[in-house]
Amino acid sequence: MTMIGDHGMFTTMETMSISKFKATCLQVLDDVRRTGRPVLVTKRGVPIAEVVPPSRPGKPRRVLGGAPGRIVGDIVSPVAGPDDWSGERTLELLR
Q1: For residue 74, what are the CA distances in angstroms to 68, 69, 77, 78, 79?
Q2: The CATH number of domain 2-51, selected from 3.40.50.920, 3.30.70.20, 3.30.450.20, 3.40.1620.10
Q3: Which of 2, 42, 43, 50 has CB atoms 3.0–4.6 Å from 13's, for a disulfide?
Q4: Residue 44 predicted with pLDDT over 90
Q5: Would you place residue 73 in the very low, low, confident or very high pLDDT band (cuts 50, 70, 90)?
């Protein structure tokens, strides 16, 4: 076990060799996720990695111009036909 200090809080971190981690990797990952306690992986006594729980997911970022919901209707065809843009019809649309 290793004591880790983080902003005045101390927690214990399990230490395990790389060979044990390799043999039990999936179980170790599940334990870290479930308990929230990190694991220090060593190779010949030298730390090489820390397995830590994932951070909490934040709010999903909105894409500029990405309105929530579905697009309904025809978004490819023109809004107005060629006849709508000539003569008196144009004046009616602009009023």
Answers
A1: 18, 16, 6, 9, 9
A2: 3.40.1620.10
A3: 2
A4: yes
A5: confident
